[in-house]
Amino acid sequence: MTDEIYRASTTAPVNIAVIKYWGKRDPKLNLPTNSSLSVTLSQSDLRTHTTASCSPSYPSFDSLLLNGSEQDVSGARTQACFRELRSLRRNLEGQDASLPKLSTLPLKIVSENNFPTAAGLASSAAGFAALVRAIANLYELPSSPTDLSRIARQGSGSACRSLFGGYVGWEQGKEVDGSDSVAFQVAPESHWPEMRAIILVVSAAKKGVSSTTGMQTTVATSSLFAARASDTVPKRMKQMQEAIQIKDFETFGKITMMDSNSFHATCLDTYPPIFYLNDVSRAAIKMVEAINAAAGRIIAAYTFDAGPNAVIYYLQENEAQVAGLFKAFMGEKDGWKGTRGDAIQASEEAF
Ligand code: PMV
């Protein structure tokens, strides 16, 4: 091999769950206690752009640069992704001796998020999805998005859903090795292109309790949790997929809000309790309720991940009543704008 640099780039968008993943049955493999479902934002919206390269001329260690700053790659999650991808490449190299031995070379990963880092939005999903696909492209692996979702899941659970566009499920699976815990596409983005999301940046601060710690404490202490995992979520997974298939926004919205509430209820039921929502989050919930009451039906749906930032789903035809009202109320400060969704900055004083 010469000192050639091998390189491949890709992008992966953020996904926002409407049926939440919360609870791991295997923390090492990131195997969940329930299936989940999300909407992947458009490529032009919040996304991570990643270039993976390798070369005999590189220093002899793997490296990852995120938004210009060096990241630690020694963590078990990142290592699991590197290991799986290298092993697939090694198989290819074993079958075809003419292939360069890229699996033996140090990797250099360079990632950029196109949204303000200060927005405090969960980026690990897009980050790991982009990292895994960039390396898979670099290694010219014949892997399908399903195969890659199995690997990205080990980086960050929710990352497996960002390997697909549109409406995406993550099947919890039954196998102990996680081989059937993969993402699948419920419908492409083009199936329901009127869907919009507005992201209300309530706080740019890092979340107080990490999702991994939070999930483990919830599983260990919450009595609400078992019923959510075994009964509530399986029913909702079915209803949600049907609602998406027939483009029934009222059902989509109602399940989205109820599932967010259910997830945050298990957080409150965790001991010691976990509070991700704050007063601004609760004011946003009230505002959505008021919008829906004025419309006489559900035209807006809120959902919150492990933090106070609200994501509001609505259909384009209701842009003025939903996004217009939120923007008028809070003003557009340090916002981020995309084609599928906007992010607007809310402050504690806004309400
Ligand atoms: O993938 P993680 O470990 O960052 O966990 C994500 C958990 C939630 O965002 C709260 C829910 C979800 O399904 O994305």
Written account of the structure:
InterPro entries: GHMP_kinase_C_sf, Mev_decarb, Mev_diP_decarb, MVD-like_N, Mvd1_C, Ribosomal_Su5_D2-typ_SF, Ribsml_uS5_D2-typ_fold_subgr. Its EC number is 4.1.1.33. The protein has 351 residues and is an alpha+beta fold. The protein has two domains: 186 residues, 2-Layer Sandwich (Ribosomal Protein S5, domain 2); 156 residues, GHMP kinase, C-terminal domain (Alpha-Beta Plaits, 2-Layer Sandwich). Helix content is 37%, strand content 23%. It has eight helices and 16 strands. Strands 1-6-9-7-8 form a five-stranded mixed beta sheet, covered by helices on one side. The radius of gyration is 20 Å and the shape is globular. (3R)-3-hydroxy-3-methyl-5-(phosphonooxy)pentanoic acid binds next to helix 4. The site of (3R)-3-hydroxy-3-methyl-5-(phosphonooxy)pentanoic acid has 14 residues, from helix 4.
CATH class of the largest domain: Alpha Beta
Judging from the principal axes of the Cα atoms, what is the shape?
globular
CATH architecture of the largest domain: 2-Layer Sandwich
> Roughly what fraction of the amino acids lie in strands?
15-25%
Q: Which segments are poorly predicted (pLDDT under 50) over 5 or more consecutive residues? A: 346-351
Order of helices and strands: EEEEEEEEHEHHEEEHHHHEEHEE
Instruction: Tell me the radius of gyration.
Output: 20 Å
Query: What is the terminal separation in angstroms?
Result: 62 Å
Query: Could you give the count of β-strands?
Result: 16
Number of helices: 8
Bound molecules: (3R)-3-hydroxy-3-methyl-5-(phosphonooxy)pentanoic acid
* Main sheet: strand order: 1-6-9-7-8
Provide mean pLDDT, rounded: 91
How much helix is in the residues? 25-40%
According to CATH, what is the topology of the largest domain? Answer: Ribosomal Protein S5, domain 2
Counted up, domains total 2
Derived from helix and strand composition plus strand pairing, the structural class reads alpha+beta
Largest sheet: 5 strands, mixed
EC number: 4.1.1.33
Domain Diphosphomevalonate decarboxylase-like N-terminal: 12-183
GO molecular function: ATP binding; diphosphomevalonate decarboxylase activity
Enzyme class: lyase
